[in-house]
UniProtKB/TrEMBL annotation:
Gene3D superfamilies: 3.20.20.220
Family note: Belongs to the proline oxidase family.
Name used for this protein in its record: Proline dehydrogenase
GO molecular function, a single term: FAD binding
GO cellular component: mitochondrion
Region of interest (Disordered), residue spans: 33-56
């Protein structure tokens, strides 16, 4: 097994630079990006009308037909349990019932709450999560590593409301980073960071509003703002901020400073032990502030990149392809990063907040920021992936293709091979959530690509919002979990027919 992300070379972080440089405008960056300057522009990389079929073997070497090989590291007991968990989590009425119970007053009754959390722990939690703490997660990490997979460690923290909870969360992030030292290089490919856990969400909303307004009115002065990369494009939705927001109060500015200090501590620790950080994306009401945090940190930690050598990024920011402005924003950030010689990686996902985004836009009388059809989301994902692969083949860029979608994975894998990107290149990684798409993870790994599982851990009640999102995602027969179920059933049938292969 090749090592994953072994070397973010030591960098001397400079102070955050105040934003007083003449940043190129987003539209000029886009014009440049979209112009036919080299074969990496999106326009030249539209996905083919017909994408390779899911299970055929091609130049990418991904074979999803041989279930014996795909599931060889999974015991029959675990396979049975996983099949049951995925069936249950994709059964619509069950998801509705679970959601209703979780949001009901039953959860306020201590006994009922304990019963519900215990039941969850022994079913969905044990399928989708690595354990309640780092010790428990270590066992899962070892199992994954033995099977040839790395892990992205995600301490299950959701939104923080005040500085005290942010400080507690910071402590957990630092502990997780320290803990990766106990393991072989590459076993932990990334530590996942949620900006919402280290900066109060109300402040992220305020900062997002101000950034949106500044995008509309360039004369707006934001004295607290550090140098960053573009976070909007001409197509970005601005409906969340209908009128000019008040400036940050001195107390809010102080809190923002504290949040940056927290992120700086996390970056310093991660840098010391050569573990890159993966910053999760959330909903559009706060995403501008999250992008701003990520890109400012990337700029701050780019000092060594100015020597002219290629650097591995410390920060990977997330782009959600279900957003109509995803491609434009990605291109703008990437182009500015190249121009400013800021190493930054991208995690590409489709996006997990579709219902709430649609609801919020409708409630504000605005057009949804999400693509009108799932096919448009698929196209956007594929185009963003191909854009980044082109960039990588041209010598700059790093991407984590975080998806369960077999077509997108195969398309990207074939493209990488055809561009001459080595399958084990540290610049290209695939990732799936723990407990989902085992066949795809192993298919990619068997073909020689680097693959990680996104591994949440933490107390059961803290992980509930994450589990609810997974249930929502798996709902219905057309979800990606349908292929998982089909392949697992096939393997279970094969083992039933030849009991000698049980283990
Ligand atoms: C490693 C990893 C990290 C992740 N991190 C994040 C994160 O930081 N932030 C985040 O938001 N999500 C994150 N996710 C979750 C991710 O967004 C979902 O797993 C993903 O949306 C499921 O899509 P898929 O690529 O697996 O493909 P599919 O299952 O093929 O696509 C389903 C997705 O398509 C989109 N979609 C569905 N219907 C429509 C429609 N009618 N119109 C438009 N679009 C539609 C939705 O995004 C839906 O989730 C992460 C996932 C992984 C694997």
């Amino acid at each position: 097994m090749t090592m994953v992300n072994g070397s973010i070379r030591s960098k001397v972080p400079g102070n955050l630079r105040r934003l007083n440089y003449a940043a190129p405008s987003v539209s000029s960056l886009l014009q440049e990006t979209m112009a036919p300057r080299k074969p990496s522009s999106f326009a030249k990389n539209r996905p083919p009308a017909s994408i390779p079929t899911a299970t055929t073997s091609a130049a990418d070497g991904i074979d999803l037909t041989d279930t014996k090989r795909l599931f060889e590291s999974i015991s029959t007991g675990k396979l049975l349990k996983s099949t049951a968990a995925i069936h249950a989590s994709s059964f619509g009425p069950m998801v509705d019932l679970g959601t209703a119970v979780m949001n009901s007053r039953l959860m306020e009754n201590p006994l009922a709450r304990k019963i519900i959390l215990d039941a969850t722990e022994h079913t969905f939690y044990s399928h989708f999560c690595a354990g309640k703490d780092l010790d428990a997660a270590a066992a899962t990490l070892s199992r994954l590593w033995d099977a040839g997979l790395s892990a992205m460690m995600d301490y299950g923290l959701e939104h923080a409301d005040d500085n005290h909870s942010c400080d507690l969360n910071l402590h957990e992030f630092l502990r997780t980073i320290e803990w990766t030292k106990l393991h072989q290089p590459g076993q932990v490919s990334f530590v996942v960071v949620k900006i919402t856990a280290i900066c109060p969400v109300s402040l992220l909303k305020r900062v997002s509003d101000l950034l949106r307004w500044e995008n509309k009115d360039k004369s707006l002065n934001l004295p607290w703002k550090f140098e960053s990369l573009p976070i909007f494009s001409d197509s970005s939705p601005l409906y969340h901020t209908p009128k000019k927001p008040e400036s940050l109060t001195p107390e809010e500015e102080k809190d923002l400073g504290l949040a940056f200090e927290r992120l700086t501590k996390i970056c310093d620790h991660a840098l010391q032990i050569n573990t890159p950080l993966l910053i999760d994306a959330e909903d559009t009401s706060i995403q501008p502030a999250i992008d701003y945090f990520s890109y400012s940190a990337a700029v701050k930690y780019s000092a060594a990149a100015c020597t002219g050598e290629k650097e591995d990024p410390l920060i990977f920011n997330t782009i959600q392809a279900y957003l109509k402005d995803a491609k434009d924003r990605l291109a703008a950030a990437k182009k500015a990063a190249d121009r400013m010689r800021v190493p930054v990686g991208f995690k590409l996902v489709r996006g997990a907040y579709m219902s709430s985004e649609n609801r919020l836009a409708a409630s504000l009388g605005a057009e949804t920021p999400i693509h009108d059809t799932i096919q448009k989301t698929h196209d956007c994902y594929n185009e963003c992936a191909l854009f980044l692969l082109d960039e990588i083949s041209g010598g700059g860029g790093s991407v984590v293709l975080a998806t369960h979608n077999i077509e997108s994975s195969k398309l990207a894998a074939s493209k990488a091979v055809s561009l001459g990107i080595k399958k084990d290149s540290p610049c290209l990684q695939f990732a799936q959530l723990y407990g989902m798409s085992e066949a795809l993870s192993f298919g990619l790994k068997n073909a020689g690509f680097r693959v990680s599982k996104y591994l949440p851990f933490g107390p059961v009640d803290q992980i509930m919002p994450y589990l609810m999102r997974r249930a929502e995602e798996n709902r219905g027969m057309l979800s990606t979990s349908a292929t998982d179920k089909m392949l697992m059933r096939k393997e279970l049938m094969r083992r039933l027919r030849s009991p000698a292969s049980w283990f």
